[in-house]
Structure formats: C-alpha cells, structure tokens
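Cross-posted from the bioinformatics board.
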Amino acid sequence: MSPKRPAEQLNESILIRRIREGEHELFYELVRPYERRVYAAAFAILRNEADAEDVAQEAVLKAFKHIRQFREEARFSTWLIQITVNEARMRRRKAHANIMEPIADWQDEEGNYTPRDFADWREIPSETLERNEVRQKLAEALAQLGHIYREVFVLRDMKHLSIEETARALGISTASVKTRLLRARLMLRDLLAPGLGGAWSSKLSFEKGAKPW
Amino acid sequence: MVVNCEHVWREVSNYLDGEVEPNLRAAIEEHIRGCTRCAAVLYGTRNVIQLYGDDRMLEVPLGYSQRLHRRLDENMPSNRRSFLGWMVAAAAACLIFGTLEVTRGSAFRVPQLRSQLAEPGNGVPPEMLVVVSENGKLFHVAGCEYIHEKTKLRTVTAGEASQEGYAPCVRCLRKYLADVTHPAPKSTLPSRPA
C-alpha cells in the first residue's frame, strides 16, 4: 500500500475528532475509502460473500461505536481491518464444524517449500483479467489456500497493506507475515502455472504448456 | 555471494517486495540468469502478485456499499436523537395543549355569557348561593321576582353560576354591577321599569 500523504492523515485525524465531538455523519466519509478493503478482509477469512458482507457491516458498526477507543498512533484503516479480522475469525470459529479447511492448512508453516511447477510463465497481459473465466479460476485457486495463508495474501497482495500493517491487522509477527506470504504466493503459482496441470493449461482448455494469452 | 536454488525459492517473495539486501539481490539475479527453473518460479510468482493485485480480482457484491450505509443509518445516534427530539417536542406540545385546555376549563377561564347583552358582574362572592333556571341567562338571589321558569330552578353557588355563563340579575344583584369597568353596551339594553 502506498504510504498515505500527511494531508490525508491530517484530514482523517480531523474527521475522527469531529466524529467524536458529535458530527456522526462524517463517519461515512471516514470509512468510505476502506469499505472494499473491509469486505476483502472478511472474505479472505470466511470465503463466503454473504458472511463476508455481514461481518463487514458488523465491523464498520463496531468501529463507529468504539471510535473513542481508537488510538491515533495506529492508522484508522489498520484498526478497522483488525476489527474486521477479529469479527470474521469469531464467525469462522462459530461455524468451524461446518467448514472444511483446505489441505494447505495442514502443511508445516516452518518447513521448506519446494515449487512443483517449473514451466515458463513469463509474460502476462492485464487484459487476461477481462475474462470472467480467468477471474473465476484465480478465485478458485485462492480458495484452495489454507486460511492463514489466504488472510495474509489478501491483505498484502490484494489490498496492498504493508508487511507491518498486515502483521498488526492479523495479530502476528512480521516474520510470520513474510513466511506465510511466501508460501501463499508459491502455492498459487503452483496452482496456476501452465506446466504440470496448472489451472491455465488444464482447466481453462489451453493447450498443455502453452500460455493462455 | 553465491546462492543455490533453494535459497532463491526462500527469498523470492522478499526479492519481489524489495526486501533483500543489495548483495543478496545481485546474487539472486546472477543465479536466475543461468537457472531456468528459478526463473520460472520468479516470473510465475511475480505474475501471481500482478494478477491478484488487480482491483477487478476482488469485486464487492452489487449494492454492498448502499446496504452498509443503510445499516449505519439505522444505528446513527443523530437519527435516534432526532427521533427522540421529535418525541420530546410532541410530548411538550401535548403538555402545553393539555395545560391550555385545563386552564380554559378552570376558574381562570372567562366564561362565555349566555346573554350577549348582560354584564358579567364584579365582586360577587363565589360562595354565595344563588338560583338559576334552566333556560335563563341570569342568576338570582333566591326569591327574586324576576326569576323566569320558577319550576325549573336549581341552587348553585355564584361561582358555579358564573362558570355556566349566567350573569347577575340586574335587579336583585344590582350592587355587583355598579363597579363594572367595561360596561356592556347598555345603549342597546332596553330599559326596564324598576
């Protein structure tokens, strides 16, 4: 995530102060830039649109009700994501019995990871994402990750939080963020690469070994 | 510095994030130039980051923002305060209206006289017992010869009679009419022989 400009941060501080002083309607303005990120964080943990939206609403409401507890040494966005992550984790725990976690969750976080696929996958035009089929395959691959990897990957690579912000939001160390991020990226690469039956070649009806673009 | 394939795989993520020291970076780049497997891993990982980093990859459900704002609307204290304010205002209005009604019905109310030509009187002792007739317009001292409909009389206090719109008799209660500060239009009152 690109660092926030001082003017933006100042503006955010002013907004928060005014909300605390009773101008509650300004909360909409404060939270608007982070609405999508809140949903993404919830979705990364829950993998279900309806649950993610419900949790996103709960998290935003909770942030509003507890805005006086927000300490301004952290960023508001990080605090908001922390609330979202906590809410989503609680929801997931409640429904744990009904959720089949992907096999990747059982893998050893500390052990070495060896890439499975070494096919050349060098060029990638952005137009590929115009295709629903491609986006669908990417979403399916993401859903196959264990939640500890998916959480980190979504916040860091999809919502562009920094390593430190991701660590704070998830309540883990920066070292854990880096380890999990590496795993997540490599696992996704294995799932998608056009070599050993990666999504591009086998499931998207591309010729084996050929690039889909 | 020389690195092997496993070293590259461990650092590929940090390398792409720009989080490796210059010496290690140079060593990785040197290794990749001669290792197609590591090059495949590096470029593939870069592609993953690029693909998933695109905003199109995580679209929010249609109407998500509107539903979120509606939920916030429902929980905004300003709205509740506004509603409470309306309730307080309504209660205050009811109280004022009720007070006015009570006041109108109380002894402070200036009664509407049954006769537009009569005078309300001045200083009639409210406890004084007087008599009124059902269809009459004046109250009288018992036995006054100017009482009409003597069969339908009731005895009430002067105060009650006044509240019901009766006025003092111009004969038997004349003395209470002498000091009236705003006299009735006497010019229109037909003179009556004493």
